[in-house]
C-alpha cells in the first residue's frame, strides 16, 4: 500500500459509507432487521422470528448505530454497545454471564468498576454481500491481512474496522472508559496490531464458536491510534456528530426515545 493510500482511509470510506446513530424507533428497526438477516437467517446463531427482527433484553440499555451505503442509501451493517441498567447497575453484561467462571479477576474484575463507565461491544453485523470472502459463510464479521490492500476490492476492507471505530466514538461521547468484547482470538489480535489498547482478560470460552474475552481502553485507543487509522476515525466521528438527533445538549441517553 502506498503512503497516499495509507493516508486516504477516511476519504475512501466517505465515498461509499456513513455511520448513522440509531436513536429513533425507525432506525432501530433497521438494526433489528439486519441482525435477523445475519444472526438468524444467515449464521443461524439465533432462532428465526416471525417479524424477521432480532432483539433482546439488552437493547433498551444499548447505544445502536448503522452503516449505510451512501450511493444506494441501503443500511448494510450495525453494532451496539450495551451499558449496565441504570435502575439495576449490578445486572451483569452478557460477557459477565458467559465468562462468569473463567474471567481472570486478577487482571480486571468488572463488578468493581464504576458501572456507568463500562459497556460491552455486541451484535456487530454486516449483510452477506458486503461481508463474505472465500470461507466466510459462517462468520459474522472479520478482519484479515488482505483487508489492507487496494480499496477497489469487492469486499471494501474498512467495513469491520469502521464499525469498531464507531463504538469507540459513541463510547467517548457518553463518557464510557472501558469496552469489553467477546470475540475470536484472531480478530482480537488484529485489533492489537492496529494499535487498539486491548488486553485479554480470560481464557477462551464456547459461545457460537471459540471466543476470548478482552477489554479495551477507550481513551487509550483513541489517544494511541495509528496515523493511518486517524483519518478514518475522524470521518466516522463527523458522521456521528452530524447524524445525532437534536436534543438540546446533543447527546441522547440510552433509554430515551426520539
UniProtKB/TrEMBL annotation:
Database matches in Gene3D superfamilies: 3.40.630.30
Identification of the protein by name: N-acyl amino acid synthase, PEP-CTERM/exosortase system-associated
Species, as recorded: Nitrosospira multiformis
Amino acid at each position: 500500500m502506498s503512503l497516499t493510500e495509507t493516508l486516504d482511509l477516511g476519504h475512501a470510506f466517505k465515498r461509499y459509507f456513513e455511520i448513522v446513530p440509531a436513536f429513533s424507533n425507525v432506525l432501530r428497526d433497521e438494526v433489528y432487521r439486519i441482525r435477523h438477516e445475519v444472526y438468524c437467517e444467515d449464521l443461524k446463531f439465533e432462532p428465526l422470528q416471525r417479524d424477521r427482527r432480532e432483539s433482546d433484553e439488552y437493547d433498551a440499555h444499548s447505544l445502536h448505530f448503522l452503516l449505510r451505503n451512501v450511493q444506494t442509501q441501503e443500511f448494510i451493517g450495525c453494532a451496539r454497545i450495551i451499558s449496565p441498567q441504570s435502575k439495576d447497575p449490578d445486572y451483569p453484561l452478557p460477557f459477565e454471564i458467559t465468562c462468569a467462571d473463567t474471567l481472570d479477576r486478577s487482571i480486571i474484575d468488572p463488578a468493581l468498576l464504576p458501572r456507568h463507565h463500562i459497556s460491552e461491544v455486541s451484535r456487530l453485523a454486516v449483510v452477506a454481500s458486503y461481508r463474505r470472502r472465500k470461507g466466510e459463510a459462517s462468520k459474522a464479521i472479520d478482519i484479515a491481512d488482505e483487508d489492507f490492500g487496494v480499496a477497489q476490492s469487492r469486499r471494501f476492507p474498512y467495513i469491520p474496522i469502521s464499525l469498531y471505530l464507531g463504538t469507540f466514538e459513541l463510547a467517548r461521547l457518553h463518557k464510557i472508559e472501558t469496552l469489553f468484547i467477546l470475540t475470536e482470538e484472531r480478530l482480537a489480535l488484529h485489533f492489537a496490531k492496529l494499535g487498539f489498547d486491548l488486553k485479554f482478560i480470560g481464557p477462551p470460552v464456547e459461545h457460537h464458536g471459540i471466543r476470548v474475552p478482552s477489554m479495551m481502553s477507550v481513551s487509550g485507543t483513541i489517544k494511541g491510534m495509528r496515523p493511518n487509522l486517524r483519518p478514518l476515525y475522524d470521518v466516522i466521528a463527523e458522521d456521528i456528530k452530524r447524524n445525532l438527533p437534536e436534543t438540546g445538549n446533543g447527546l441522547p441517553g440510552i433509554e430515551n426515545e426520539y
